Structure of SH3-like domain-containing protein:
Amino acid sequence: MAMYRFLMLLVAGLCAMASLPAHGQDRDVPYWASIRADVLNMRVGPSQDYRIEWVYKRKGLPLRVIRRVEAWRFVEDPDGAQGWVSASLLSPERSAIIIGDGLAAIRAEPDPGSKLKWNAEPGVVGYLGKCENGFCQFNTDGHKGWVQADRLWGAGEP
């Protein structure tokens, strides 16, 4: 009898966990998210029954979440492609990608006249810190600095 009660509690607990929303992904849209997984399939509909439109192999890439349907999110990527992804494969951690033409200056302080630490090419992905004075803190593989917000897709309001 004790084993039966244990199994019933275990099943009830697992069912309760399965019904919980993906951590940090059950909020008002639109919002920014980043890819949590090493591989993420973008589908044409909100279910694994729909065909895969695109496969992302870039952990940390920022995505704009536009709609929610149960455990699925309709997202837009930096190139404008849109489709459905599993919410469990997204992270609420903010990231951004360098956009625009030419190198983006990564500076020591949020000021265009501050010391240049390095330059980043368009396409470099990093995680965001705070933004101020038109700059955002940017961390790519442990290299930290400030980059102009208008050179980042994923900064600002979604």
Residues 135 and 148 are 4 Å apart (CA to CA). The chain has two domains: 22-93, 96-153.
